[in-house]
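Final report, closing paragraph on structural work. Over the funding period we assembled a curated collection of sequence-structure pairs, and we close with a single example.
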Amino acid sequence: MDIANLTASLPWLRPELLLTSYALIGVLIGAAYREKAAGVLATLGVLALAGAGVLALLAIPGKPQEVFGGALVIDSFGVFAKALIAFSAAATLWLGADTMLRAHDRRFEFSLIVVMSTLGMLIMASANDLITLYMGLELQSLGAYVLAAFARDDARSSEAGLKYFVLGALASGLLLYGASLIYGFTGSIQFGDIAADARHGDVGVVFGLVFLLCGIGFKLSAAPFHMWTPDVYEGAPTPVTALFAAAPKAAAVALMARVLFDPFAGLQAEWSQVIAAMAALSLVIGSVAALVQTNIKRLMAYSSIANIGYVLMALAAGPQAGAAAALVYLATYLPATIGVFAIILAMRRGGHLLDQLEDFAGLAVRRPWLGALLTVLVFSLTGIPPLAGFFGKYYAFQAALSAGLWPLVVLAAIATVVSAGYYLRILAIVWFQPPVGEIERPSGAVAITAGLSTFLVLGVLSIGLGPVARWAVEAARASFGS
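Its predicted structure, as stored:
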């Protein structure tokens, strides 16, 4: 790639360049000032992530733009996904840094690792060849492995990081094997060239795609590749769990949509069965297993598995309807999830975070406003109208029905009823059980994040979801054609 092409590519990558600049400067500041720089770097990291989200929204192209010699593609779908990723990462970094600093854990590396991991997520959303796909995925994953084990003196955190690393390495091996099969049978790593050869339906390409989807499915926490999720969610520091539950999910969904609808759109008859099976397993395993959990982080882990089932159900419907429904679902799911984790981070007693369901007993008596916010957020996750979560599920169901996937829709409807069991159990504990002790006054970051998340699911995203849905439809149409 010559200098002219490089220069023309850079303006489209302002979000990535902003995060890279922050990381390079942050390393120098951290090396010079160590723990004294933790607060400043956290603040700058939140601003950098929020700024990356804004820059992504300002770079919506009229038609898809290939940059860096076709390694990346900038299109409306990717811009939508990048905005969700960046704003979610900013919110969870704000929560995480606030919690870490309050616990006197002033390691400056936390903010840098979160930002670099987010950079990998942005690359995933724009990947246009197999090498870029792998680079983005591993940049995101390597940071996640470190973050899971960030509490070095906690045996559970170290165990979570080790489990995540070992299973993640296995998933990366599956993904690389699939990529090598695809390259071997098509002779190209570029998505556009792969699409031309994949239409022939060579069995090697189909096998390669299956292995590729297995690797991405691991990052999604989709069943049957979900085995790491409950243990890592429980063992990782709670601020890190909040991050895992939000931005990486949006990045993995964007990457899977990119893979399915760009190079392998001609093999929809083959991959739709695989995606539908993953969706069904995720819905069943996530919903049923969550019923018996007593740890709120494990419950949210199984909840995330079930919610990924709805996203996969939408993707199984095909390019336009599926991509649009997946974006709408993420736009409604992420604020509610971040809000719930903000309230989980508010549960502190004696300087220690609480994560057992019984610790929420009588929260509505001890902190009525927290109980009210949690009620709205949980109702949204359940899919109760007119909250935003209802509309997210509505678009996913509608996309699946339009593709004739009615058995999967019936299963998803049953899973929704089952999910009400564990979501409402949380509220029963919050409202109807006697208090078991006082909790500390939540910090400003926690209160603002919980309040803003509730406002989004109650107001902006439920009443004003029309513009968001129209944008998602237009993004899917512009990015994945007719």
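Residues 279-482 form one domain. DSSP finds 21 helices and four strands in the chain. We thank the funder for supporting this effort.
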